[in-house]
Task: inverse folding
């Protein structure tokens, strides 16, 4: 690695460490609102934060979808092996949610929209004998095809959007929140739910054995040492600290978002 490349890498890591929020700020909903809307057993199992009244909107305005998501979260259980093995967002962990939600009608959805632009003005067409200007309304229209295009959400049912980011680059959150905002602006969804690794998982990663390849064998670094599982889950990947940083900054725009963090309570074989 050249000196310039190393310097760039160090800078990226430094910025990644700074772009983290350990707690929600004043833009988040009061904890009492979350406690009133989300069942106790779900709050015991996950870290949960609500923005723009997402918890209330989901539970009160969309009770059927809310019930399905709560049951899915109750049943969600991962293992130490799933955490250690390679795969990122293509690992077996997202597949657990897909197996439950797809049969219930939660579909991968893309929103596309054309922009219709109307220009309206008044144009003077004549003058009366008395010197008074007479105006008539004029109008033109134009269409900008696919003004909104390619915004994809993994699970949408009714007017509820749901997504999981287990171990992607943290910039994926920007894409997700932008998609949530676009769907909300178009009136396609009322609320978004985003699940990711909770803060409390970080110490667990450091206690697990070495990382595993997809075939289940131990993964080694270039120097021949075993690669720690924690190395797979770096500062610049998707986890709650990265999500809260963006929600605190308002990157969800006008879309209510419920942020849910996976905790050690979701690991079936954890002590």
Result:
């Amino acid at each position: 690695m050249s000196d310039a490349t190393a310097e760039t890498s160090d800078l990226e890591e430094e910025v990644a460490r700074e772009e983290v929020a350990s707690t929600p700020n004043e833009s988040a909903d009061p904890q009492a609102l979350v406690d009133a809307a989300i069942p106790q057993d779900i709050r015991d199992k996950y870290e949960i934060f609500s923005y723009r009244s997402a918890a209330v909107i989901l539970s009160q305005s969309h009770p059927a979808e809310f019930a399905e998501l709560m049951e899915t979260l109750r049943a969600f259980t991962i293992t130490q092996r799933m955490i250690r093995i390679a795969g990122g967002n293509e690992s077996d962990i997202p597949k657990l949610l897909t197996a439950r939600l797809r049969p219930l009608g939660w579909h991968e959805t893309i929103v596309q929209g054309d922009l219709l632009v109307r220009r309206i003005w008044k144009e003077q067409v004549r003058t009366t004998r008395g010197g008074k200007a007479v105006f008539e309304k004029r109008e033109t229209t134009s269409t900008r095809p696919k003004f909104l295009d390619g915004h994809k959400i993994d699970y949408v049912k009714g007017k509820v959007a749901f997504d999981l980011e287990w171990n992607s680059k943290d910039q994926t959150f920007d894409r997700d929140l932008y998609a949530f905002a676009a769907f909300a602006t178009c009136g396609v969804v009322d609320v978004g739910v985003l699940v990711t690794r909770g803060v409390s998982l970080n110490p667990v990663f450091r206690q697990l054995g070495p990382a595993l390849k997809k075939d289940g064998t131990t993964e080694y670094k270039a120097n021949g040492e075993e690669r720690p599982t924690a190395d797979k889950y770096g500062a610049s990947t998707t986890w709650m600290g990265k999500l809260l940083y963006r929600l605190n900054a308002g990157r969800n725009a006008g879309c209510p978002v419920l942020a849910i963090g996976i905790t050690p309570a979701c690991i079936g074989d954890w002590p």
